[in-house]
Amino acid sequence: MGAEYRDRRAAGAVLADRLEPYAGRPETVVLGLVRGGVPVAAEVASRLRSPLDVLVIRKLGVPWAPEVAFGALGPQGVRVLNDDIAGRLEPYQIADVTHREEVERSRREARYRGARPPLDLAGRTAVIVDDGLATGATARAAVVVAHRLGAERIVLAVPVGAAEACESLAAVADEIVCPICAVDFGAVSRYYLDFHQVTDDEVDAALGDRAPGRE
Q: How far apart are CA 94 and CA 96, in angstroms?
């Protein structure tokens, strides 16, 4: 299969079309998963005329195969584990990876949130956006966080995802919006012509003035 999207911005435009029912609604807030989901979310938020914020989640990767997630971390001490994979690791391995990723998650939280207060999603419709869905561990943690922050409705929106992950997450999110759910998934990068690693500066630029509390 060739690439379906030129870049993350183009993918966001496609998602926004699917999310049109949420456009202009005051309860809607778009949350980009740091870092790759933020440029996608910025395009969605712009087209929906909704505020944009970030949700900082860190994947917990198997020590000898970091791309394989055994869980994920989120704000307020949320940790979600994939028991099938985590059960194959020693407790010290889980602890080491968790500590390292929490240090990085905290750094990113401090950078992107700055002096702004923590997310408060009470009564809101949270549209959680990422650039793709592979194992679903990060997205699952994001949904758990949004629930704990009081979101009334949670919509998970991704341009592309593994069919198995989409099916699994449909049980925890109120709605899944995924234009391409692939059985033979491979990797997120195969669906983009441009899938460069998003930098901190790009996240800052994408947030711009759309994030709540930014002057």
A: 6
pTM above 0.90, yes or no: no
Secondary-structure class of domain 8-207 per CATH: alpha beta
Could you list the mean pLDDT of each consecutive 10-residue stretch along the chain, which spans 215 residues?
85 97 96 94 96 91 89 84 91 96 91 79 96 89 89 97 93 95 90 94 79 46
**Number of DSSP helices (H) and strands (E) in the chain, helices first:** 7, 10
Helix (H) or strand (E) holding 65: strand 65-73
Query: Pairing relation of β-strands 160-162 and 79-81?
Result: unpaired
CB 105 within 8 A of CB 132: no
| Tokens 């379906």 -> residue | 4
How far out from the chain centre does Cα 106 lie?
Answer: 16
Could you tell me which residues are beta bridge partners of residue 181?
161
Domain definitions of the chain by residue range: 8-207
Output the six-digit token pair for 179.
Answer: 């234009």
Tokens of 6: 């030129």
